[in-house]
Amino acid sequence: MSLNPQKPRAKMEARELTLRYGPKTAIHKVSLAILDRQVTALIGPSGCGKSTFLRSLNRMNDLISGTTHSGAILLDGTDIHDRGVDVVDLRRRVGMVFQKSNPFPKSIFENVAYGLRVGGMKDKAELATRVEKSLRGAALWDEVKDRLDESALGLSGGQQQRLCIARAMAVEPEVLLMDEPASALDPIATAKIEELIHELKATYTIAIVTHNMQQAARVSDRTAFFYMGELVECGPTEQIFTNPREKRTEDYVTGKFG
Ligand SMILES: Nc1ncnc2c1ncn2[C@@H]1O[C@H](COP(=O)(O)OP(=O)(O)OP(=O)(O)O)[C@@H](O)[C@H]1O
């Protein structure tokens, strides 16, 4: 039997993407593929444009007035800025989890059901099934199944972050963007999130911004190193950490700056 592992395809791809906040260029001519069902870590010193790049992938930067861009971002080969693309649908397909968990001041159940209700789902049994599936997927079900009607604000920080992941997953996105999802958490909660990311990549394509080198090395298949708004290099995580092509990458991953 011949083993012919197919090269993973690009789920998303930035081509020569430049993004400006007013006159300030935040990222410059970045070309980067986010491969299907892999975890891509975005690393680099503060202010290098990691979050800007991440937010570009589901057009969150559109919400900041004065932003302009050139170049293209493709999702399954279609430019996400094409006139025919509905931004609400794009953000359903490309979900996001933020640094600081941001549950709504509603019950645990309603937090997860929120996107489904907005999408028009009314059937109670269907909602309950989807909420349970998402909470199980986010490895939170066992901890909250007996208190679904309690406020989400009563959960611990780590639980709140997993709830936000469940909320993002409920609408069945294809890509999950995570902006430092564990930076506010203790080591145990962080380990849970990392374990979860590992499980989620069987289903989702994931891009994660992290300041934590060990975390990037643990959770990602590929790592992209940004520096002063440019993509310096991207490759298999092991190669970036042990045998980078560029001196700047080596200096950063070995802790010489940043
Ligand atoms: N809303 C904004 N308006 C103006 N400039 C911004 C805005 N957001 C970011 N910038 C600037 O764009 C550049 C890139 O910022 P970005 O937040 O993408 O970097 P980052 O690598 O994610 O940084 P950090 O690791 O500190 O979060 C920085 O110079 C920043 O000051």
UniProtKB/TrEMBL annotation:
Keyword Heme recorded: no
Keywords: ATP-binding, Nucleotide-binding, Phosphate transport, Transport
One cellular component (GO) term of this entry: membrane
BP terms from Gene Ontology: phosphate ion transmembrane transport
Record's keyword annotation contains Coiled coil: no
Gene Ontology molecular function terms on file: ATP binding; ATP hydrolysis activity; phosphate transmembrane transporter activity
ABC transporter domain residues: 12-253
Gene3D superfamilies for this protein: P-loop containing nucleotide triphosphate hydrolases
Matching InterPro entries: AAA+_ATPase (IPR003593), ABC_transporter-like_ATP-bd (IPR003439), ABC_transporter-like_CS (IPR017871), P-loop_NTPase (IPR027417), PstB-like (IPR005670)
Record NCBIfam families: 3a0107s01c2
Protein name according to UniProt: Phosphate transport ATP-binding protein PstB
Species this chain originates from: Pseudomyxococcus hansupus
